[in-house]
Design brief:
With about 270 residues, the chain is of the alpha+beta class. It has 9 helices and 8 strands. The termini are far apart. The relative contact order is 0.11.
Length: about 270
Amino acid sequence: MSEEATSTVVRVVRLLQCIAEVGGEISVKEFAAHLSLPPSTVHRLLKLLMSQGLIEQRATTQRYRVGRELFRISSLIARQVDFEEIARPILTALRDACQETCYFAMYLPTSRRFVGTVVARSPHPLGYHFEPLMQQKVAWGAVGRCMLAYLPEEEVRKAVAEAGESPAGNPPPSLKDMKAALEEIRERGYASAEGEIFPEAIGFARVVFDADGNVMGSLGITMPMIRYKASMHKQLANLVIGKAKELSKALGYREVAELPASNELRPRRRARA
């Protein structure tokens, strides 16, 4: 393939990524700004994609949107891809970076619980592992609370009312304390908790959204306190934020308003509920 053809392919891919990630309808001028390309080049690429049904133009507004053929192809691909195939490489990369157990926990809205579905285990002989498909209340642990922080207030009230003692024996949280903890999670963009699900363990987690912006679950790290040092806090938080964002993006989520950037993180006192 010639250099010119390669360049055209790359630009076409970028254009398709742009219309998928921006969503809705988009003009030639907006495409040009997003892609840093001349409007004439964008127009040429759009005509090429329109000829194959991948992009459609709304005649009344002269704006462009995803074409029915691209939608058909995307639907066929989505049916063939298993969630674990998407999550496993991301979890494995996270585990390799921190050398601790990493997991994806799925949110179960009907019961306000979560369940570990994909796990990458720590290479250390001493570690904490979620039992497959064992349900836990969403009010407890970093993994649950980072989901709860992005759920409606009524769900928060119900989760607190149902919390009871944590799996590690911590007393039930008050609604006031829970709201304060969830606000802090939203400000930081991640959750951390110590000794709530596993005694003498610390966890870090970040919410994962699906393509519609709903809470799908969370990506987390758990490790024994004996291996944890306060100097590791920022690194672990940054790792879990980055990989959770990567998983959300892989699931089709478009982040409209960015949560706090990783370089704004600062360790805070770990609250015990």
